[in-house]
Amino acid sequence: MTGNESRVQAIYEITNREPIAVKEPEKLEDLWASNVFSLNKMQASLPKQVFKSVKKTIQSGEKLDPSVADAVAGAMRDWAISKGAMYYAHVFYPLTGLTAEKHDGFISPQGNGDVISEFSGKLLIQGEPDGSSFPNGGIRDTFEARGYTGWDVTSPAYILETEQGATLCIPTVFISWTGEALDKKTPLLRSISVVDKASKRLLKLLGSNNIATVSSSCGAEQEYFLIDANFANTRPDILLAGRTLFGKPPAKGQQFDDHYFGAIPARVQAYMHDVEEKLYKLGIPAKTRHNEVAPGQFEIAPVFESANVASDHQQMIMTTLRDTAKQHGFVCLLHEKPFAGINGSGKHVNWSIGNSTQGNLLDPGDTPEENLQFLAFCGAVIRGVHMYGPLMRAVIATASNDHRLGANEAPPAIMSVYLGSQLEEIFNQIKDGDLKGSSHKGVMQLGVDVLPPLTKDAGDRNRTSPFAFTGNRFEFRAVGSSQSVSGPLIALNTMMADSLGWISDQLEAKLGDRKAGPEEVGQLIQPILQDIMSKHGSAVFGGNGYSEEWHTEAVEQRGLLNIPTTADALPFLKDPIIKTLFESTGVLSPTELESRFEVYAEQYILFIDVEAKLVTDMAKTLIYPAVMRHLSESAGAIANLSEIGISVDKSSVEKVAGLAKTLLEGANELETAVQKHDFDSVEDHMQYCATTLRSMMDSVREAVDTLEGEVADDLWPLPTYEEMLFIK
User: Fold this and answer.
1) Which CATH superfamily is domain 32-183 in?
2) Tens digit of pLDDT for each residue in 396-451?
3) Which one, of 382, 380, 417, lies nearest residue 500 by Cα?
4) Which of 100, 180, 628, 725 is most buried by a 10 A CB count?
5) CATH, domain 192-245+254-440+455-588, list 3.40.50.360, 3.30.590.10, 3.40.50.880, 3.20.20.70
6) What is the pTM of this model?
7) Distance (Å) of CA 110 to CA 113, 114, 116
8) Measured between alpha carbons, how far is residue 183 from residues 136, 160, 543 in Å?
């Protein structure tokens, strides 16, 4: 096909598509966790003592008794086979940010020529995928291939159903032969452990007894775009980079605010129903779905879960969204900015910590000024954000997320914390050494008798803050839609553990060897919180994070860092304060931390390299030939009209010709620039990508997008924004 024939064919296929038949919905109680080897299924299939041992490990973090592994493996195998599984897979999360899995069959050949189904405790506990083919940041040489997967008993095994069959999936850690973490799960589990210990220590000092295991929790709001596969398959940029590298903004975008929370298109709703059914079978509590701000953009949000399980489930959600989209003729785009000029996609990570005995430790209650437990833990958050803001920026730094941060749709690249008016008032009083009280929740009178009175929260929300308190948790709004949530959770847990430890150190020094009652403890901790606000209160900001005034105030008056790009952010992983944080808590060794910098820096460079090459290829082989055909046809038409005495304005043709020259020159310059490899350091290479290459790509794009508005539509080779965003 030439010209826009592929576009016309795509539109025909979409508009004449047979609707996918909606299945009769199953009862939720029949669906829920039907494909999960849950505690209930364990209890029904394991000896009482074995079940008791495993349950203790899962719920209390007790060390796993290896002697129970054979019994668990046998029960897990029998359950999986009953669900149609012939293979099992150790599922792990390498530093690519994606999900990896190695499949092995239950089949075990016997000496007499027969086979049996076999799955031992040894096979359950440990596997050995090739460790050399995953990014490791210099931890292993290429010829050192051994890597191990280890069963994470705290995250349940599950059956993954596809049209090709069922597989038993076992969540695991992934480590090197020398014991370093090659994955995202291992340091996450470590961070969960250290925040538990630090929380228990402080709670005990505050006078609590009978303290249950403290765990961090996560609820991640996943945003995504859906476009028809017929369009996506004709766009090399979407196929290889996950976003459009060219595209003129449509006349109508999101300016009417008519898509946000609007009626969900029927085809999209059928897709969502299919996604949710699969998630429910996996025990993933997807609760909320709606249209997002941009046309073609949607959101799914699960209920809070423990951080480790939530992280695993988040990976499963992304996989399910992508795979199910194919079955419905869509492509699901998780890129943070697939379309220029309209809202990109984030993944707001709602984070808190708590336990079964003290409850949510970040719940202020009705009188937060009297809630010593809350004030101490919230103070720890403030200290952590101020001290380790660059780390928070680094863990959400990717080439794709750079397109969002700082724009009028996503929090700025300056890390601050929003508390809301009530809590900000309280902490400012603490800073001044005069804690008196605060405004409280109220009731809104709506003036309509048939409407019930609505509770008014003590403070509003702030969508411009990168880290905002939202009632009983903090919302890390800057996380990118394509990212694993484990990196942000590792950072938040580790920062929190460090700050809780610091508060405990100060309180212990004041207490000495004596025991104190609640009133004295309250008096002792107030100056500690006052010290936190004096040193770290500059990170608290309740205003408009998008404003230029805030950028100036944050940097020049408060001393906060504005870290605009990944090239600026990742080097902070090598900062001594970050190294000390991870090493002192045991979450990441210096070698493991260095490896993350190397891996993520390489990924950034490779990502920009792929995009730059795509810009060059598409500009020279798709756009430029179409422009030449347009000029040729225009020249012929002008000549024919001149022969019969009709004068034609040639300014449009001259404009197109000038843009074509700019386009070709820019593409050639970019092609040459991509070949440069003589850099003094990885940091220099990243800066070259962030400044030189990105700037040159933008220049080529500007020419192409202008040409799209000048070249005859029947010659334009790429599906347009109007088509991709509005034709479903």
Assistant:
1) Glutamine synthetase, N-terminal domain (3.10.20.70)
2) 999 999 998 866 567 788 999 999 988 999 899 889 887 776 666 554 444 555 55
3) 380
4) 725
5) 3.30.590.10
6) 0.93
7) 6, 5, 7
8) 9, 21, 38
